[in-house]
Write a structure and sequence with these properties.
By secondary structure, the protein is mainly α.
Length: 177
């Protein structure tokens, strides 16, 4: 898993690579969002979309009430965050970054979750969502020190909420409640 330095370095490499290909990300968009914040939004949106998808499966087909309640909260929180993140991306800029990100589930992991039901789904969901959240935490950590108060606040919120949910998921895995 990448630490905050690794994530910052990865974002910088991506921004430089886009520039070398003739694709630019404005230093300042319509709002006060720098290139790092815009890239974060472009990466976090598909990350959140995947979390919402697998959380929907847990709500519909899981059997653990505690896991289902957590999944419903994930859907609500991350849907709201996606709406906020979309406002950071300048009109005409690339969206839906298709690159490796910490915590993203592989196609085979998604297939296993999609087919699972009941307790099997609960177990897979809790393990996979824990890893997924840890990836989001690593991505958000560097931007908690952003000069933009909105960016810093959202990333601080992601860190706090998802760290708490990781602890909650671990408790559910151990106690079932």
């Amino acid at each position: 898993m990448c630490d905050s330095f690794c994530v910052r370095k990865s974002i910088s490499v991506i921004v430089i690579g886009l520039w070398l290909c003739g694709i630019s990300i404005p230093a300042q968009a319509a709002g006060p969002y720098d290139a790092e914040s815009i890239m974060f939004a472009q990466m976090m949106i598909p990350h959140h979309q995947q979390a919402i998808l697998i959380s929907q499966w847990e709500v519909k087909r899981g059997s653990n009430p505690s896991a289902e309640k957590l999944a419903a909260r994930v859907i609500s929180q991350q849907t709201s965050e996606i709406s906020q993140l979309k406002k950071w991306i300048p009109t005409g800029a690339m969206t839906g970054m298709d690159m490796p990100m910490d915590g993203m589930l592989s196609a085979s992991d998604l297939a296993a979750l999609k087919e699972a039901r009941g307790k099997k789904l609960d177990g897979l969901y809790l393990v996979d969502m824990t890893l997924h959240h840890q990836g989001a935490i690593a991505m958000a950590r560097p931007l908690t020190r952003s000069k933009n108060p909105e960016v810093a606040a959202l990333c601080t919120s992601i860190l706090a909420l998802q760290s708490g949910e990781v602890a909650e998921m671990r408790r559910i895995m151990v106690t079932g409640k």
